[in-house]
Amino acid sequence: MSTWVAVLAAGAVAYALKLAGHLVPARLLEHPRARRVGALLPAALLAALVVVQTASDGDRLVLDARAVGLGVAALALALRAPFLIVIVLAAAAAAGVRALTGWG
Protein backbone atom coordinates (compact mmCIF):
# COMPACT_ATOMS: atom_id res chain seq x y z
CA MET A 1 0.00 0.00 0.00
CA SER A 2 1.44 3.35 -0.96
CA THR A 3 1.72 6.25 1.46
CA TRP A 4 -0.85 8.31 -0.41
CA VAL A 5 -3.44 5.55 -0.28
CA ALA A 6 -2.96 5.32 3.49
CA VAL A 7 -3.19 9.12 3.87
CA LEU A 8 -6.36 9.30 1.79
CA ALA A 9 -7.93 6.36 3.64
CA ALA A 10 -7.14 7.96 7.02
CA GLY A 11 -8.63 11.25 5.81
CA ALA A 12 -11.80 9.51 4.66
CA VAL A 13 -12.16 7.72 8.00
CA ALA A 14 -11.62 10.99 9.92
CA TYR A 15 -14.23 12.75 7.77
CA ALA A 16 -16.70 9.90 8.26
CA LEU A 17 -16.23 10.05 12.04
CA LYS A 18 -16.79 13.81 12.09
CA LEU A 19 -19.89 13.41 9.92
CA ALA A 20 -21.21 10.68 12.20
CA GLY A 21 -20.78 13.07 15.15
CA HIS A 22 -23.02 15.62 13.45
CA LEU A 23 -25.66 13.01 12.67
CA VAL A 24 -26.08 11.89 16.30
CA PRO A 25 -29.43 13.12 17.61
CA ALA A 26 -29.17 15.86 20.25
CA ARG A 27 -31.32 13.90 22.70
CA LEU A 28 -28.63 11.21 22.90
CA LEU A 29 -25.93 13.76 23.67
CA GLU A 30 -28.03 15.34 26.43
CA HIS A 31 -28.42 12.04 28.28
CA PRO A 32 -26.74 12.21 31.74
CA ARG A 33 -24.54 9.19 31.06
CA ALA A 34 -23.31 10.67 27.77
CA ARG A 35 -22.49 13.94 29.56
CA ARG A 36 -20.51 12.10 32.27
CA VAL A 37 -18.56 10.11 29.71
CA GLY A 38 -17.91 13.24 27.66
CA ALA A 39 -16.62 15.07 30.73
CA LEU A 40 -14.25 12.24 31.74
CA LEU A 41 -12.99 11.26 28.30
CA PRO A 42 -10.28 13.95 27.90
CA ALA A 43 -8.68 13.01 31.23
CA ALA A 44 -8.70 9.32 30.34
CA LEU A 45 -7.13 9.97 26.94
CA LEU A 46 -4.46 12.19 28.46
CA ALA A 47 -3.64 9.54 31.06
CA ALA A 48 -3.33 6.91 28.34
CA LEU A 49 -0.97 9.12 26.34
CA VAL A 50 1.19 9.76 29.41
CA VAL A 51 1.46 6.04 30.16
CA VAL A 52 2.34 5.15 26.57
CA GLN A 53 4.99 7.89 26.34
CA THR A 54 6.45 7.02 29.76
CA ALA A 55 6.48 3.24 29.73
CA SER A 56 7.16 2.28 26.12
CA ASP A 57 10.02 2.36 23.69
CA GLY A 58 8.78 1.41 20.26
CA ASP A 59 6.98 -1.87 20.69
CA ARG A 60 8.28 -2.86 24.13
CA LEU A 61 7.68 -1.80 27.71
CA VAL A 62 10.54 -0.13 29.56
CA LEU A 63 11.18 1.28 33.01
CA ASP A 64 13.69 4.11 32.88
CA ALA A 65 14.31 7.67 34.06
CA ARG A 66 10.99 8.82 32.61
CA ALA A 67 9.19 6.74 35.24
CA VAL A 68 11.14 8.51 37.99
CA GLY A 69 10.19 11.88 36.50
CA LEU A 70 6.53 10.84 36.37
CA GLY A 71 6.67 9.72 39.98
CA VAL A 72 8.19 13.03 41.07
CA ALA A 73 5.53 14.90 39.09
CA ALA A 74 2.75 12.88 40.75
CA LEU A 75 4.21 13.60 44.19
CA ALA A 76 4.53 17.31 43.44
CA LEU A 77 0.93 17.41 42.21
CA ALA A 78 -0.23 15.60 45.34
CA LEU A 79 1.53 18.30 47.38
CA ARG A 80 -0.31 20.94 45.32
CA ALA A 81 2.79 22.46 43.72
CA PRO A 82 2.23 24.95 40.87
CA PHE A 83 2.25 23.33 37.44
CA LEU A 84 5.48 25.00 36.31
CA ILE A 85 7.25 23.70 39.42
CA VAL A 86 5.87 20.21 38.72
CA ILE A 87 7.35 20.27 35.22
CA VAL A 88 10.74 21.56 36.41
CA LEU A 89 10.94 18.99 39.22
CA ALA A 90 10.00 16.10 36.93
CA ALA A 91 12.54 17.13 34.29
CA ALA A 92 15.25 17.63 36.90
CA ALA A 93 14.55 14.23 38.47
CA ALA A 94 14.67 12.42 35.13
CA ALA A 95 17.83 14.29 34.11
CA GLY A 96 19.44 13.58 37.47
CA VAL A 97 18.71 9.85 37.22
CA ARG A 98 20.11 9.78 33.69
CA ALA A 99 23.23 11.71 34.70
CA LEU A 100 23.94 9.63 37.80
CA THR A 101 23.16 6.19 36.43
CA GLY A 102 23.19 6.39 32.65
CA TRP A 103 19.74 4.79 32.93
CA GLY A 104 17.25 5.63 30.22
Commentary on this structure:
The chain has 104 residues and is mostly helical. It has helices at residues 3-23, 26-29, 32-55, 65-78, 83-101, and strands at residues 56-57, 60-61. It has a two-stranded antiparallel sheet with strand order 1-2. Helix 4 (65-78) runs antiparallel to helix 5. The mean pLDDT is 92.
Task: Annotate the secondary structure layout.
Blueprint: H1 3-23, H2 26-29, H3 32-55, E1 56-57, E2 60-61, H4 65-78, H5 83-101
Antiparallel strand pairs: 1-2
Query: What portion of residues belong to β-strands?
Result: under 5%
C-alpha termini separation: 35 Å
Question: What is the arithmetic mean of pLDDT?
Answer: 92
Give the quaternary arrangement of the chains: single chain
Strand order of the largest sheet: 1-2
Q: Supply the helix-strand structural class.
A: mainly alpha
* Poorly predicted regions: none
**Radius of gyration from the alpha-carbon trace, in angstroms:** 20 Å
Describe the largest sheet: 2 strands, antiparallel
DSSP E strands, number: 2
How many helices in DSSP terms? Answer: 5
